[in-house]
Amino acid sequence: MFKIALNAGHYIDEPGKRCLKSIDPAETREWVLNDRICDKVEDGLKNYEGYELLRIDDTTGRQNLTISRRAKKANDFGADIYVAVH
């Protein structure tokens, strides 16, 4: 079984991680965009077999998981690939 660790990067309240006001007046937070991409990846993979997927970030975006904690989760899972969306 091929194992995929998927990470939306950062967390919702990460200081400074947001879109430029000049292109997005709402200054959407980066995690929100990354999470949407991860959701699309998860949905797209549902059409396939032969893999396991683990989201290693906090899918609510509220908890800041360190990079080392995310890496440990991916390693403990036995991930063949680690995809971090940024």
Q: What's the gyration radius in Å?
A: 14 Å
Output mean pLDDT: 93
Largest sheet: 3 strands, parallel
Which strand-content bin applies to the residues?
15-25%
Low-confidence stretches: none
How many extended strands?
A: 3
Could you give the order of strands across the largest sheet? Answer: 2-1-3
How would the global form be characterised? globular
Series of secondary-structure elements, N-terminal to C-terminal: EHEHE
Q: Residue share in helices?
A: 25-40%
Number of helices: 2
Find the structural class using helix and strand composition. alpha/beta
Keywords:
86 residues, alpha/beta, three-stranded parallel beta sheet
Q: What is this entry, summarized?
A:
The protein has helices at 30-45, 67-77, and strands at 2-7, 51-55, 81-84. A three-stranded parallel sheet has the order 2-1-3, with helices on both faces.
Structural topology:
Blueprint: E1 2-7, H1 30-45, E2 51-55, H2 67-77, E3 81-84
Parallel strand pairs: 1-2, 1-3
Description:
This protein has about 90 residues and is an alpha/beta fold. Helix content is about 30%, strand content about 15%. The chain has two helices and three strands; from the N terminus they run E-H-E-H-E. Strands 2-1-3 form a three-stranded parallel beta sheet, sandwiched between helices. The model has no long low-confidence stretch (mean pLDDT about 95).
